[in-house]
Description:
Layout lengths: L9 H8 L1 E2 L9 H9 L3 E4 L7 H14 L4 E4 L20 H7 L2 H17 L4 E2 L24 H16 L4 E7 L20 H6 L2 H9 L4 E4 L17 H11 L5 E3 L6 H4 L4 H11 L4 E2 L7 H16 L5 H18 L14 H9 L1 E4 L17 E5 L16 H7 L4 E5 L6 H16 L4 E5 L6 H13 L4 E4 L11 E4 L5 H12 L5
Parallel strand pairs: 1-8, 2-3, 3-4, 4-5, 5-6, 6-7, 10-11, 10-12, 12-13, 13-14
Antiparallel strand pairs: 9-14
Amino acid sequence: MTTLANGTDTLTRDALTVLQPGFTGTTAPDWLLRRLGEGLASVGLFGRNIASPDQLAALTAQLRAERDDVLVALDEEGGDVTRLEVGSGSSFPGNHALGAVDDVQLTHQVAHELGRRLAACGVNLNWAPSADVNSDPRNPVIGVRSFGADTDLAARHTAAYVTGLQSAGVAACTKHFPGHGDTAVDSHHALPRIDVRAEVLAERELTPFRAAIAAGTRAVMSAHILVPALDPDHPATLSRRILTGLLREELGYDGLIVTDGMEMQAIAGTYGIERGSVLAIAAGADAICVGGGLSDDATVLRLRDALVAAVRAGELPEQRLAEAAERVRALARWADTPGRPADSAHGTEIGLHAARRALTVTAAPGLGSPGSFKPLTEPPYVAALTPVANIAVGDETPWGVAAELVHLLPGTVTGRFSAGDGPENAAGESAGRAALEAAGPRRIVAVVRDEHRHPWMSSALDTLLAARPDTLVVEMGVPQADPRGALHIATHGAARVCGRAAAEVIAGITGL
């Protein structure tokens, strides 16, 4: 590979400044420190970079020893998408649980406490919150990451989250503009398309983003989605009509625009990351997020050189690149400003408190009210009906109720069951029979995640409930399917604290 510039001229420094790359390992590699010295201004961290809060603090200190105003970004939504607690599950429920409670002060408090923990570890930019209105229940990538399907609810909680997070000194990055909720395709794998009228978009998708802008969100992340009513030819990340015309000019937003991960197939599989990055900056983006899948020096150099070459070829105005780089530096200056409170009056229990409030408990027909439920006193068998996790959530983070029930009912046993191969109904029946055999005489707690999106899961529950109508059901995704089971507990998310709250109900630790 030919390096187009020596790493010291203004153009090359600006090209490095607009990149937000990732890396592997729990300490910064030499190549990353070298690029920070040459102009790189942001670093994106992922679960693979984090082993503990102390280690994360040491890592961010290592980065700041090279560049004291570096933006350190993390994809920490709480709930199902956690990097800070990737190995244990989050201490905070996610957006859908907060939306179920619908207490904007609670959302502000949770976001502030999460921001306080991030700031204590040296993270100053959070790629959160998701402002997407989850209007399509089939959505495979947003779901519980959304506050809900109600536009006004999503808007008021997005604003509360932004102000709570930023009150702790961590910049919010509201995503995924102009709204990823009305899709049945995951942009990690392909290019989603939203076919609704511009009027619907203005009233539904854009309302939470208006609220975030009014609340002062310091960053907005673009979505890799095609919205023909706004731009029939380019996905939002590459659309000047959407990023400049709509977000900048119509909505009046003047903060940082960050792209979603450029190695996602919606962009990489169609344009390639180099061409995609050039088009994104030309369209109005200010920072290129890359590093979830590509995390090496070669990727940084490829993108740097592609931007420099585009300017020299007249394909990308140098002033546009300079403007983007200055917005990155402006956010770094904000994040480096002292004076915002780092303490918290809410303590470390705010997440569990929120998770408890988010529970919806329903009794089976004929059982009476949930209050008549008799808690378990003997250790049950937990049958976790496990779907394939989307890339945003990942499969490294544990979820469910078994780990929490073990503490409350020692001797609890668990098994995981999936669809496997073959027709979904047959796979579900097979999973249900296997769970019945494994459970033996124990009471069964069936744990599901988005039952409404997985026919095999519904079939497995049919099999379990037909044989064992006293089975308890815990839904840890979007509770779209009809409640069933001797007791149905909807947690509105699969964070560790959501599992704890459900386990407390099952064991009778908290009242219904």
